[in-house]
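Case study 2.
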Amino acid sequence: MLTTTTFPITYPATFPSSSTTSITSATTTCSSTLGRTTTRTLTTTLRTATRTNLLRLHASQSSSPMIEKERPETNRPLTFLRESDGQSPASDSGNNSVRARFEAMIREAQDTVCAAIEAVDGGGKFKEDVWSRPGGGGGISRVLQDGAVWEKAGVNVSVVYGLMPPEAYRAAKPAGSEEKPGPVPFFAAGISSVLHPKNPFAPTLHFNYRYFETDAPKDTPGAPRQWWFGGGTDLTPAYIFEEDVQHFHSVQKGACDKFDSSFYPRFKKWCDDYFYIKHRGERRGLGGIFFDDLNDCDQEMLLSFATECANSVVPAYIPIIEKRKDLPFTDQHKAWQQLRRGRYVEFNLVYDRGTTFGLKTGGRIESILVSLPLTARWEYDHKPEEGSEEWKLLDACINPREWVQ
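Prediction:
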């Protein structure tokens, strides 16, 4: 007997997530699109401690929240940045800071993706919630539910300011240091989306691109300022159409290859490793690209790379939906789709770092749980028949394939 679980309306989260792939401290050489080579020594001890302590900081409700409670707004502001963040203090030309340009990029990407989703649906419209926080920051959450094509589509942007514990900095200080810095300010901005179509032959898509900074504590002048980019785009079908998966991965590879030929194989493997459901011994889907803690190249190059990846979402995904959204299907096909969505729920509630971070830091709950589909189901000890189309999908989730060369 198949049971169906219905989840409440939810919205995307854009809190920083931590990867399951570790990056050791090393000197990495990376070529930018401008033809120059940047060599940078990475210190990941600090970032690892930062992520660990962020998760520990508010595991108990007895602590004061690390992120202020949001309040609803009636209109979209031009920016969610604090006034002091609009321009880069290090820039002589007066150009916008990386924070400002990243926010502009994710808001434009949100508009572009939402317009494409509505056009494909042919009638459904996004519900929009705008929210802010008293100390700065805020976001725009959009969801389209029960449309002609989409069961649920969420696209969210957010800008977040907060404080992280001083222990994150102690890990980077020399042994025996007597300094006891105060809380460390952090900034995070991102776009996150999960798109669940109704037709079981049309795949689910997830993408998330984010930028993270920490500032030096006020009582520790000269402490290192850290920044990094993270994100990725991944495809989760219930049925494999080889040409669809090849198209999707070829677009990801094309975006990566514009910047560094090593990016796609590196981030494709990272994606396969990250979206692994340990208790099932299988991946959530058929992958794509994923990266985190990325600062081993020039900052401007990585901003351009994140922008290119976000701009690649529509051409990678919408042509697939156009081909599959109207295909006839049976109750058996729909039941298999719902079982695979059960796997989606398992990964996101048990393993996803962004979900964990949001739940433990007092984030916006409707945003945190967006990745849960409107409906999912579980069947006791379900095993697809060997050689069936369902079995082929499961086999590809257990044994990741190389879809493009």
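Residues 98-121 form the longest helix (24 residues).
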